[in-house]
C-alpha cells in the first residue's frame, strides 16, 4: 500500500514538474514546450527508404548513423522522455520580396541572419536542465535527473519528436508546422530519464494544399513528405562541398545560403509571429547585401563578418562558389563581369569553375537578353499579398 501511495505521490509531483518545465521554458525564451516518449520505431522504414534512395546526397553521416536517428534512447542511455522546445526566428521586416526580386542583391535564408541558433538554444536548454535538477533535489529526493541537450547537433529525428510532443505537425515540405507560428522556428530537445507525463500530437492540417511542392525551384520535394536533398538549394549551398550541378544553378537565382521558398508560400506562415529574440535579429551586412559588396570580401573579412553565425561553417570557398552562381543569374553588367574576371586568376578550381560558368551566362544574356523568371515572379506576388504579421 505504501509503495502504491509513493508511486502516486511521485506521479503527482512529476505532473507538477511538467507545468514548471513549461513555465521555465517560456521564461527562457522558448515559444512552446512539449513532452514526448522516445518511441520512433514507426519512422524507421521511411528513414531507411530515404537513405536507400540516396536522398541524403553527400551527407555521409546520415547513412553512417543509420537507425540510431530513430532510437534516441540509444543516443543517451537511460532516457525515457524528450522535452521538445521551439524558438521563433522570423525577423521583423524580413524583406523577402525586395531581396529575392533584386538580382544584384544576395538572399540569405532568414534563419541565418542572426547569431548561430545552435549556441543560443543549447545554452538555454542547459539552463532548463539545471532548473529541473534543482527542483528534483528539493521535491523529488528519490529521483535524480540525467539529461542531455540537442540542437540539430546529433543523429536524432527532431521533427518526429517535436510532433509527438504536440509542437506541430509535419508539412508536405517535411518541416514542422503550427497554427500559431507556421514553420519559422528552431527545434531543440532535452533527453531526460524522468517518466514525465506526455503531451498529445496536433492533427495534420495541410489538407489538399501542395503550394510548397509546386513552388520549389529545383523540385526537391519529390512527393508529399519526401525531400530529395540532392536537389534542395539549402543542401546545395550549405551541405554540399563540391561543384553545384549545372541543372540547378539557374534555379538558385540569388540564393547564396539556404532557401525559404517552400515556407514563403505556405498559408500557415501568414500567421507567423516575428521573433522577440535579439540574438536572431539580422546582422546589417547580410540582411539585403549587394552581390558586389560580398564578392569584395577576402577570407579574413568573411570570417570576421560571419563570426558567431551559422554561415561561417560553410567556409570561404563555398561562399565564393555560391556567390559566383548568383552573379551568373543576375542581369549582365560591366561591373559584374569585371569583378568575376579579376577574381578568376587566383580562384580555387572549384570557385574558378563557377566563375567561368557565370561569365558565360552573363555574356550570353548580354547578347540574347535576360529571360523572365516566371516562377520567381509568382513567388514574389504571393509573398507581397500574404506577408506574415510585421514581416
Question: What does the model show?
Answer:
The chain is α+β, with helices and mostly antiparallel strands and 391 residues long. The chain has 2 domains: 2-92 and 113-192, no CATH class; 211-385, no CATH class. Helices cover 45% and strands 10% of the residues. The protein is built from 18 helices and 10 strands. Strands 1-2-7-4 form a 4-stranded antiparallel β-sheet, with helices on both faces. It has a two-stranded parallel ribbon with strand order 3-10. A hairpin with a 5-residue loop joins strand 5 (169-170) and strand 6 (176-177). Helix 15 (315-328) packs parallel to helix 17 (349-368). It is elongated, with a radius of gyration of 23 Å. The N and C termini lie far apart (59 Å). The model has no long low-confidence stretch (mean pLDDT 92).
Considering the chains and any ligands shown, give keywords for the structure.
single chain, 2 domains, four-stranded antiparallel beta sheet, two-stranded parallel sheet, QueG, epoxyqueuosine reductase activity, alpha+beta, 10 strands, Epoxyqueuosine reductase
